[in-house]
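Chapter summary example.
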Amino acid sequence: MRGFGALLVVAFGLALAGCASTDQPATSGADANDPFESTNRQIFALNQKLDRYVVKPGAETYVEVVPEPARTGIHNFLTNLDLPVTFANDVLQGEVDRAGQTAGRFAINSTVGLAGILDLATPMGIPYHSEDFGQTLAVYGVDEGPYLVLPLFGPDPPRDIAGQVADVFLDPFTYVKLREHTLWDLGRGYVSLLDLRARNLDTLESIERSSVDYYASVRSLYRQLRNNEIRNGKTDVQNLPSF
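The structure predicted for these 243 residues follows.
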């Protein structure tokens, strides 16, 4: 259910902290590698309505009903479940040190951290990071492909779609035989959605309010977020301005 993590109403709240201002001029569809812009904008509008009438009210209720310490524990538990996929992609990318950090974090939080509810690894100097197979494909030089917006999933270019499919097979929980496996997957995806949306209520509202063209801003922020994730936060030395 990693696709929920790329849901339009969520991904860009995570991007805002490390990205440029949203009041930049809109780029044309051709220049932004957005050949299906007309259709993408229609799906974008549909996703906005789903967010406004379904996702956002649910997230606001979640914040009101569930105390903050409990929400933090749920968030920690969910991120801990994603660490095996992160570890697999660290290894595939040849990031030995980061793979070791991921393994150590998972071991500590899954045991003394009570299945990840308590994040004891971060105070011990083992920070959280995420990796997915879409990032791994990018590291190996696979092109993003045309910009796409999917119903519910939001921005999802072909490279990331392929990555999400691969991550399902990299997730060991896929192979855990649960009596109600489908309900577990749906429940995990839905709670992950609530958690992400709830943590970005104010941020997303600020992005929309400050954007001249919300669609173009979201497209730009998505690209900035993904490129930053692919570089693991390192400076992009290949696209520096010439002087």
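To summarize the output: The chain has ten helices and two strands.
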